[in-house]
Amino acid sequence: MSTTAPPTRGNGTRSATQRLRVGGYALGAYLLRRLVITAVLLLGVTAVTFLLVQLVPGDSMTATLSEAALQDPEIVAAYRERWGLDEPLHVQYLVYLQNVLTGDLGVSQQTGRSVLGDLMTYVPATLEIALPAMLLSLLIGVAVGLYAAVRHGRAGDQVVRAGTLLGLSTPPFWLSLVVLYVFFFVLGVSPSGGRLSTYWVPPEQVTGVMSLDALLAGEPAMAWDAVQHAVLPVLVLTVLTVATLVRFVRSAMLEVLDQDYIRAARAKGLPGRTVLLSHVLRAGLVPVITVSGLAFAALLSGTVLVEQIFSWPGVGQYAYRAAAALDMPAILGVSLFVAVVYTVVNLIVDLLYGLIDPRIRLS
Amino acid sequence: MGVRPARVGAAVAAAAALTLTACTAGGSGGGAAGGGGSDDESPGQGGTLTVSTSFVVNSLDPGQVYEATGALAVHAMYDTLVTFEGSDVTTPVPLLAESWEVNEDATEFTFTLTDGAVFSDGSPVTAEDVVFSINRLHNLQGSPAVTVEGLAASSPSEGVVVVTSEQSNPNVPTILAMPAAGILNAEATEAEGGTAAEDAASADAATEFLNGASLGSGPYVLDSFDPASEIVLTANPEYWGETPGYQRIVISNVEAETQKLTMQRAEGDQIALDLSGRLLEDLPESVQVSASQDTFYFLTLHQDPAISEITSNPDFVRALRASIDYDGLAALFGDDALPAAGMVPTAFPGALPESEAQQQDLDAAADHLEASGITDPTVELMYPAITYRGVDLGTIATKIQFDAEQAGIAIVLDPQPIASFLEAQTGGEVPFRFSPQSLNYPVAASLVNNFAPGQASAQRTGWTEERASEEIIAAGEAVQSAPDAESQISAIQDWQRLLNEESPYVTLAYNSGVVAATETIANAEYSPAGWQVDLRAVAPQ
Prior knowledge:
The complex is a heterodimer. Chain A is mainly alpha-helical. Helices cover about 70% and strands about 0% of the residues of chain A. Chain A starts with 15 loop residues before the first helix and ends in a 7-residue tail after the last helix. By secondary structure, chain B is of the alpha+beta class. Chain B has 17 helices and 23 strands. Chain B has helices at about 5-25, 70-75, 125-140, 170-175, 185-190, 200-205, 205-210, 255-265, 315-325, 325-330, 360-370, 395-405, 420-425, 445-450, 455-460, 470-480, 485-500, and strands at about 50-55, 80-85, 95, 95-100, 110-115, 150-155, 160-165, 220-225, 230-235, 250-255, 270, 290-300, 340, 380-385, 385-390, 390, 410-415, 430-435, 505-515, 520, 525, 530-535, 540. In chain B, strands 1, 8, 9, 10, 11, 12, 13, 18 and 19 form a 9-stranded mixed beta sheet that branches. In chain B, strands 4-5-7-6 form a 4-stranded antiparallel beta sheet, covered by helices on one side. Chain B has a two-stranded antiparallel ribbon with strand order 2-3. In chain B, helix 9 runs antiparallel to helix 11 (about 360-370) and helix 16 (about 470-480) runs antiparallel to helix 17. The chains are: A mainly alpha, B alpha+beta.
């Protein structure tokens, strides 16, 4: 994306759609172009992923069949035929692409279920902890980052910087175990893992988000239980994400605070709160949106270790299992999902730029 | 500056307080002790049993099941002709078969079915169902098909099943006790696309259905199956035997470290299956621990000089064998491990006595190395970079490296991802490797079928019959042709002693499978039969 800053006209009160115009391009045309680029990108992702999996020594057969079965030519032949591994590589890939175009992501060799069905099960589970973690991170990250920028160089700023350094250097695996130890084992105020206590019969999946589905099933107590199970993973993900956000917000705000127009605003006698919230915060949000988008995409696609420790059956755990077993359909499915997530998040970020900063145009 | 930092700080504090409030609100969490369950359940009183294990499962179709977690669940849902009780794997006991007879050369087994057994849909279990299930297992050509290689089932009359073996095999009842030999409702399976025909490998379409519902006659039925999360079993209301101990069993995918925390709190009806080695330390005294040494760890040295001049040298193998500190190595596995005497772990009949455990002898190692004619040997040791039963294999490999160095043998460690290791191992060209091994079914003779010269694993090691002595070939044949269990046990002990003299395998240590259970549970014994703990028998105290 590139930005231009055209001369200011009128009172600057055009609608967002009007702002998202340049050189005759309407928002619709822009989105269409992004869609085409996305399709090409996804095609590239499948090709690269397919090739990378081929380069790894071993295949799903060695990870799936027993050692004894691997010695039996009949069993090996039956497996290869069943999963299409007896076809040449280019045929395997073309068949896969053909199926993808019809919405069929194939069948996971590990779960024996459709990859699309698996993703529809596991993505909402990840969303259930990633979304609250992201919202909490934004809330805390912006507030603390702004605080640190305002207190630049003073004791409060130093404490925040030390805290973010600690957050960034804390291994997710270790932090997960520590909070489990403290809140579950020592204090006994939290469940040990999973999405629901085992004495509950899970509700019918409607949204895939356990707490919402429990509410829809008319089970508020079950919904509360589901919320309790989500608290620790959300806490860990928040700690891991907020550190990055605080550093970015702090840097962005420091840069804005040093601008002439901020000094001018202060010189005009505007109240400090007005300067901070109306001028500094808004101008500093653009880079924050970028990093927030990337952080959210990372949360959706990279929470493997946290999900492992908390026995949280999300897409990260699914990706880990798929990779360990060299489960090609599942690996490709997860890769496509991650690519889509990043593409959509980038698109939303680009659109938000235009909404937040009227000087920015999409081209 | 007009903004008070305290206000920003207050916002942060509020957000943090919100999080902590949510955290501490869950006072009743922690599994079955929590309360608040459905109306018809009372956790800890036969309501819900939680079994925590690190999942290794691909399928709950008996014809496809061979991994530990799958075997655990399938054993609870599907009856077999015979079974084992508790931790004993020496004597099969009747289940669907009330009795059986074997001919003189152990090639024909006649099973008489018990009356009154019914499937979960209420239909009776017939001989046709048994024949269908055994033949489907064979013809599906899935991972467990190798266990019934050479076996065929037929029904000469109502209520009678005859299983024939191409060669003498006194272990057929044991093989038929395995979860993979679980008996399916043939009619219902066929209705879901299942078949026992010879083309079942390509024609059978029932596996997907069987991953969502069970068609067996066991005490539990499948409620739901998520390979990444949990397997939920519910009591079979039609069960023809004793009422199952719990209304629900939830088998949860939980990391070993989290299992330990759960067992340390020891609340409710909980079982953990991955607390081996150091993870067993610091558990409350109330936690029951049952263990059995059913796994061995071993080194394999390729015998083809074209692959490695060093590892194929018999004197080098002897030098390496003498260089290992077996006691020190076993100590790394924890209290439930032992230095290996032979290839058969102590859980199984045929294990060599502890008094024959191998010993380090560095002087002998030096003599053997000198006899090999190899000076300053350096070999690469490939192993899977995994933690198995609570023990990091890298730690064990490092100890092997250190011990060998005392004898003048340099080892370069080559850890590999598990899939890559398996691929390389299957390729049969790895000069020197290290891995854990368990039995395909709980009979020591199954090792002979795999590790004797010319057999599958031996072939991958270049240990052909041409490269083996006549004596060790004859010893293996004596095991395979033994007409009864007693003579087979004696034969397999002789075979192991010869292995310790001249095979390409260096068996290092035995490690245990462990069941840890809260004090409210009865019959939570570890079974080396393949299903780890018998969920059919587990019940509230």
